[in-house]
Amino acid sequence: MYFGFDGNTKGFEKILSRIADNHDGGKHNHKEVRAYARCLLSILPEINCNFNVKPEVQILLAALTASGLPHRDRAFLADCILKLLEESTNSKIESTTEDTNGIPF
Q1: What is the spatial distance between Cα 96 and Cα 100, in angstroms, rounded to a whole number?
Q2: How far is C-alpha 12 from the geometric centre of its chain's CA atoms?
Q3: Using CA atoms, how far apart are residues 8 and 66, in angstroms rounded to an integer?
Q4: What's the distance, CA 22 to chain centroid?
Q5: Contact indicator for 5, 36 with CB cutoff of 8 Å
Q6: Residue 74 burial (C-beta neighbours within 10 Å; 0-12, 13-18, 19+)
Q7: Who contacts 67 (Cβ-Cβ below 8 Å, separation ≥6)?
Q8: How buried is residue 26: exposed, middle or buried, by Cβ count under 10 Å (0-12/13-18/19+)?
Q9: What is the pLDDT of residues 14-54, one digit of tens each?
Q10: In the chain, how many H helices and how many E strands?
């Protein structure tokens, strides 16, 4: 656990939303976006999400740290990560609902 980080994805998603909304670089420059991505990449192991999406999220975060990408590409990658995290959350909710309904696995 990093500095008391509990694995909650809300802050993680908020930072990704900022990057996703930065299509033209008006809010954050490339250096700032790359710094955000490196930080997110380092805490990814602590994030509470579906294990199956973590490898893909890791690759996309690593791509965000690459130099030479235009802001619109970084925004696209951040949006893809947000969608993966949303799918992960939805699959957790579905599995919890199925478990409480007594369906055997």
Answers
A1: 6
A2: 6
A3: 26
A4: 16
A5: no
A6: buried
A7: 30, 34
A8: exposed
A9: 999 999 999 999 999 999 999 999 999 998 988 888 888 99
A10: 4, 0
Q: What is the pLDDT of residues 48-96, one digit of tens each?
A: 888 889 999 999 999 999 999 999 999 999 999 999 988 887 765 555 5
> 71-100 and 10-20 helices cross at what angle (nearest 10)?
150
Q: What would the two tokens of residue 68 be?
A: 């030479």
- DSSP H or E stretch at residue 97: helix 71-100
> How much is the pTM?
0.79
